[in-house]
Write a structure and sequence with these properties.
CATH superfamily of the largest domain: P-loop containing nucleotide triphosphate hydrolases
Shape: globular
Oligomer: single chain
Largest sheet: 6 strands, mixed
Radius of gyration: 24 Å
Strand content: 25-35%
Number of domains: 3
Length: 505
């Protein structure tokens, strides 16, 4: 079988961290190679070396179709036929879809001006070829995270690459969009091309890949044929232990004392009479399809989006929440699904991000208590097992999973009574998920009232004492965990709008 790509003896050292150690990897022509490993295992670092973003340590070798190459930078990588879709979106919010796709490329300007007509035409042709229903004239910042992800995918495919790398491409996609993506992948892979697919979703790895390579702690563990291995074995290679996917909550909710009550919450565009309550020590899961209103509910409760009706009570007392500052003052913390836009300052260090929501406790008479900030940062980094050489490390140097842990630390340090976690394990590997689960269970046992929004039904069932299911901006049912199954959750999540409004024939 023809080798499209071979990586040999690849190492990478950052200050205080050995990210990769003598890693080997190969990609055959005509195949999809899965690349798995826990966060911090080195997957993204390896791919950034391959695509010219990072320079490897001396001794590394990259071979393309039998010829050794030295990838100088991103543009050189593209000229060699290498393209990557990064896990985190990398587009300019104020530009249009078409401008993000093609600006700076040949033919994008006319007489010194951006030729929007030409860009829109090229984008429409690309979307038509890929089967995507996206308006090239739309402003990127106005699109949902899922649609932005589809644009990112289209941009990578537009380079006519020989080797395409996808790093968690389905993190924000629906089931239907994921199936459409898999169709694109199958169309892309020919006897002259290959694709490296990085994902923490084992079902996707099983469905779309031909082989799977595993990294652990920056080292190559092995490669197996997908058709000859159970995903449980791959997970074992990744984490060195067996992780159950059928687990249910380990502890009962602490009491029936209602901490947060929401009654008749409505918004102009989507939410309609949303009512629920969360008790002390309870994890209330929110399930539903994309666009059902789960995130919109969380943002309205937190004061990030306006509401047209509804009342919120904390510990039996009505409260006015018009802004996130109001919510924080009343003891509500919110971990957004988009941690980089709403949860973190990537150009600041770990300790500064960790204490961000509680700075009043580290300021006396205008004097910042740097020593206290550092000690608290160290304490919570250790408690949450944040992989960082120092709390002085810039956050943009950490893996996605470790960034997520820092966001959680921010709200723990603020000591909120109500915690809203929107997709808390998005983009986080199997082993780190278990750490997050243990953390949420600990918080529940301490009496925190927790709302957990997740698109992964096994995760909802694993963590939630009760499950609120949404469709079309409404709660269609609330299930006790012992009565909940993936099937009856999906039945409630797919109720038609006519059924909800009583217009069904």
């Amino acid at each position: 079988m023809t080798k499209l790509l071979e990586l040999r003896n690849v190492s990478k050292t950052f200050p205080g961290v050995k990210a990769l150690q003598d890693v080997h990897l190969d990609l055959n022509a005509g195949e999809v190679l899965g690349l798995c490993g826990e966060n911090g295992a080195g997957k993204s670092t390896l791919m950034k070396i391959l695509t010219g973003i990072y320079t490897p340590d001396p001794g590394a070798e990259i071979w393309l179709q039998g010829e050794q190459v030295e990838v100088r930078d991103v543009n050189h990588a593209r000229s060699l036929g290498l393209s990557i879709i990064h896990q985190e979106l990398n587009m300019v919010a104020d530009l249009t879809v078409a401008q993000n796709l093609f600006i700076g490329r040949p033919g994008s300007h006319r007489f010194g001006w951006i030729d929007d007509e030409a860009l829109n035409r090229r984008a429409a042709e690309l979307f038509d070829r890929l089967g995507m229903n996206i308006n090239p004239r739309s402003r990127i910042g106005d699109l949902s995270v899922a649609r932005q992800q589809m644009v990112e995918i289209a941009r990578a495919l537009s380079w006519d690459s020989k080797i395409l790398i996808m790093d968690e491409p389905t993190a924000a996609l629906t089931v239907a969009e994921t199936e459409a993506l898999f169709g694109m992948i199958r169309d892309f892979v020919t006897p002259e091309t290959g694709l490296i697919y990085i994902s923490h979703r084992m079902a996707e790895i099983a469905e779309i890949t031909d082989r799977v390579s595993v990294l652990r702690d920056g080292q190559y563990i092995g490669t197996v044929k997908t058709s000859e291995v159970e995903m449980r074995e791959v997970i074992s290679m990744m984490v060195g232990r067996e992780v159950s996917s059928e687990a249910r909550p380990r502890n009962q909710r602490l009491s029936d004392e209602v901490v947060l009550k929401v009654d008749g919450l409505s918004s102009k565009n989507l939410l309609h009479e949303v009512s629920f309550e969360v008790c002390k020590g309870e994890i209330l899961g929110f399930a539903g399809l994309m666009g059902a209103g789960r995130t919109e509910t969380a943002r309205a409760v937190f004061g990030a989006d306006p509401r047209t009706a509804g009342q919120i009570e904390i510990n039996g007392r009505p409260v006015q929440i018009r802004t996130p500052a109001d919510a924080v003052r009343h003891g509500i913390g919110y971990l957004s699904e988009d941690r980089k836009q709403f949860g973190l300052l990537l150009d600041q260090d770990v300790k500064s991000n960790a204490v961000m929501a509680a700075m009043r406790d580290f300021n006396i008479g205008g004097y910042i208590l740097d020593g206290k900030i550092r000690s608290v940062g160290i304490e919570y980094s250790q408690r949450l097992r944040v992989r960082t050489p120092s709390v002085n490390q810039l956050l943009n140097k950490l893996s996605g999973g470790n960034q997520q842990k820092v966001v959680i630390a921010k709200w723990l340090i603020r000591n909120c009574d109500v915690l809203i976690f929107d997709e808390p394990t998005r983009g986080i590997d199997v082993g780190a998920k278990e750490e997050i689960y243990e953390l949420l269970e600990t918080l529940s046992a301490q009496g925190k009232a927790i709302i957990m929004i997740s698109s992964e039904l096994p995760e909802v069932l694993r963590m939630s004492h009760r499950i609120a299911v949404m469709a079309h901006g409404r709660i269609t049912g609330v299930l006790d965990n012992q009565d909940a199954t993936q099937e009856n959750i999906m039945e409630l999540a797919t109720i038609g709008l006519a059924q909800l409004t009583g217009d069904a024939a």
